[in-house]
Design goal:
37% helix, six-stranded parallel sheet, alpha/beta
Length: 238
């Protein structure tokens, strides 16, 4: 069975993507990765961490949400053995907030763990917010040290891996939410402009797609993999 390695968003918590992982079964075998909650790691260090956890002797699909998109692009650009496809959810290859770049140093003092639930709900979940989802999101963020979250925000504000995209040889699927209040459609268009085998899709949902609409995201993922021969029609790939 083809493995689906899932990289998390800014929160770094694989647990928020559990419903998505469950919806991939039995067509794909999900592996949820998490990032350290108490260590400041830039994209380069996270790339080293993730690379060590990639399957060494199995075919796999690399799936990344939001913050992890640039990291996944870096990995795919190195053309690791076994990688069959890259799937990006609500993500980017260049900072989606370029106007804030000059102020990135202010992220060192940003109250990242004190953001009101209503604000998180509006930005990340929108109309798909409910008590359970907001509670899970706030818990995941609270579990990460503030300095680590601030460092990840600074990484987002400075990132630019556009030059690496032309090195990606596997097919790429970019999925954006119809009601994403953080990542504009332009971010997906930029990625598509640099990759030969690129498909874009829109799912009805907010920025936090894998948490808010996990089944719809899983269906898109499986359909893409099936069309590319990575998943057998109507039955799991053995």
């Amino acid at each position: 069975m083809t493995v689906a390695v899932v990289l998390p968003g800014l929160d770094g918590a694989g647990s928020l993507r559990q419903d998505f992982a469950d919806a991939l079964l039995p067509r794909l075998q999900p592996v949820l990765l998490s990032y350290p909650t108490d260590r400041i790691l830039g994209y380069g260090s996270l790339e080293d961490l993730v690379r060590k956890q990639l399957p060494s002797d199995e075919a796999y699909v690399l799936i990344a949400e939001s913050f992890s998109g640039p990291l996944a692009c870096r990995l795919a650009a190195s053309q690791p053995p076994g990688l069959k496809a890259l799937i990006l959810f609500a993500s980017f290859a260049r900072s989606p907030l370029p106007l804030l770049y000059p102020f990135r140093s202010l992220a060192r003092i940003a109250p990242v763990q004190d953001v009101p639930g209503v604000v998180l709900s509006w930005w990340l979940l929108g109309l798909w917010a409910n008590g359970k989802r907001v509670s899970e999101l706030r818990s995941a963020i609270a579990n990460v040290e503030a300095a680590v979250l601030r460092a990840r925000v600074r990484e987002v504000l400075a990132v630019d891996v556009m030059s690496m995209l032309a090195l990606i040889r596997c097919p790429v699927l970019g999925i954006r939410g119809s009601a994403d209040r953080l990542i504009r459609a332009q971010s997906h268009m930029l990625i598509g402009s640099m990759i030969g085998d690129y498909t874009e899709a829109v799912v009805e949902g907010p920025h936090a797609l894998l948490q808010a609409v996990p089944k719809a995201c899983a269906e898109r993922t499986i359909a893409f993999c099936q069309a590319r021969g990575m998943v057998g029609a109507g039955s799991p790939l053995g």
